[in-house]
Amino acid sequence: MTKNNVSSKLKLIKRGGGEVRLKVDLLLNKDEIPKDKNRIFISLFKTILLKSDEEVYRELYESGAKRKKFTFSLNMPKCKFNRESITIPGKKVSLFFSAADLKLGIVFYNAFVRSKGDVISYKDLELKIVNISLLNEKLFTGECVVFKTSSPIVVREHHKENNTDWYHSLSDNKGYELFIENLKNQILEDLPESIYDLDEIDVKVISNKTVKVKHYGIEVLSNLTTLKVTAKPYILSYMLNAGAGNFKNSGFGMLTVV
């Protein structure tokens, strides 16, 4: 794809606001990947960003721990979860990427486009980016929507004094309260004007299933959930594109509208 074509496509992103949602199709060289799968795609992000925009790469990954304003999920057709691996018969994966920050979203879009056709290695696994699609923007006009997770939500309780973490279910009062507190803090940090609307946010858990996801060698309790959210339209839009919960930039907490 030429530079001019990239610029033309990016005009589509800018028509409605500051969000970017992408679908990236990848081919694999083998039909089995490690169960600790998200780190594979984090490595992919680092590789394509380092090639495309070294400044942003260093800002995101070499300037200390920080919350990164994007999330992603994976679609692995007909996959089978084994004890330590995942079998993907068709050797195809679709990566869904979302950023609530327009500038960051454009950087990632360009990085994917510039690496289209490249073979990117992770240990003995090879991934090839074969297609990148911009997804249509969802415009919210009402103040109530039902979200479903496309990657599970993590509710983490971190204790600084001994550097330990506890992970909670959204079905429990403690987990729900921590989730709401974290959600409002992130909204306020990214959207300072929301300070006048935070108290109106109402979240109801319609259904929830806890699952354990292997993440950097640790079994993390997480939540496959459906949420009914009442809030101002711009907050609903933010939640859809930023995701919800902890570890969002590591492949958790991506939402879709039911």
TrEMBL record:
Keywords: Antiviral defense. Residues 136-256 form the CRISPR associated protein Cas6 C-terminal domain. One of its GO terms (molecular function) is hydrolase activity, acting on ester bonds. GO terms for biological process: defense response to virus. NCBIfam families: cas_cas6. This is CRISPR-associated Cas family protein. It comes from Peptoniphilus indolicus ATCC 29427.
